[in-house]
Design goal:
Length: about 475
Amino acid sequence: MGRRSHRPGPAPADVRGGEPSRRDPRGPSQGGAVRRRPSFERGDRRVAASRSRRVSQRHRRDGRLDQGGVRRHPRAVIGPALSAQYAALFDRPWPVWGAAILVATVNVFLFAFDRPWTASDGLRNWGDWILTGAGFAHRADLVAPWLYSGSLLNLGVLLGGLTAALLSREFAIRVPPPGELVKGAAGGLLMGAGAMLAFGCNIGGFFSAMSALSLSGFGMMLGLGLGAFLGLRYLLWEMARRPAWSSGKARVWGATPLDTPSRQPRAGLLLALALLALPFLYASSGYHAQGVFLLFGVAFGVVFQRSRFCLVRAFREPFMTGDAAHTRAAALALAVSMLGFAILKFTDLKDRGDWVFAGAGVGALAGGTLFGVGMTLAGGCGAGAIWRAGEGQVKLWAALAGFALGASGARLALVQADALGKLGWAVFLPSLVGWGGSIVLTLAVLAAWALLATWNEDTRVVSALE
């Protein structure tokens, strides 16, 4: 018989976001392991339900779906003419590979407009305002959150996630047990501190930095992988040795049962119209760029909410369930984004030093490790925490508060210690190996990442569960 790996105990809420992995089709005679999955490997319920034939048949029996698999409730919102299109957008999850291409494309357009995407500086802006209001810090040049570009991007992601959740009837206030709230806040603090060391979160310091051909992005990539592994090992230890820390009753308010009508789509439609009107309000006040930043954020939030595309899962799932879908999607998104950034820089449409940080070295590696542990504890990264907070996930509210305070406090400490920008070097890859070498090297690293994760998906050689 194959070896069994089973760890009893309640499932920590922060690792329930992954899709269910594929079972090993080999039997014991072919070398396949017989293993009962731990409870925390349950997949995303929404994604699982969309792929389950039994759930679809149940929905048809109670009249929720027609024979084409389309929910009937959109007719009450937009009429029968567009109900099929509405259902395609908000009744079924978007493919993760398509979302990866969309995220990369929007990021390239955002860079062409002004700057690449990052979540950390907007969250630090929020933290700076909190610490300033509490009397712990003072910055005369502090920009209001409704005018600061990074803050507006984050607000757009939050409101975009909320809008998509309402239109798809998935919004609910979900309050986890107290222990999970503590882990959310602690994970946020670690993410905030790590982002300041690495000059950005997993979006700005890894995704956008690597797209900009900054060597610091590669260093943060290594740190994120190490941190995700360490964070997952801690969660397994907690589940086996201290299950009471995360046990307790979770509460949900405002969820819409599948077999009942809901006002959520109407509320989502009204919110979408308001978000489309806000840029005109900004423009009428002389803040044209601010309205555009808000719309970019909304686009990111909608894409992430509908697809569940998540960089946390790209680093965590290969060590946990073995699922490599989000790893492949992340590699695809990075490849598209990098090529777009390279065109903008090579043609001098953007400065070649843009988004090349002085973090290649200790800063990127240590910051990425801290961030990787934090995002695993919190169950969401900087961007993921924002759009999931828009869905009503209270644990991610705690993570955002911790991130904001951790980032603001860590930056103040680095400035006072005169260590900001001194934990690494600003290295632009084409200055070392040329444009062709940089592009080939980056694509090779991304291909190796995706191929190794796919190989591990079948072999499970690398796993934090053993």
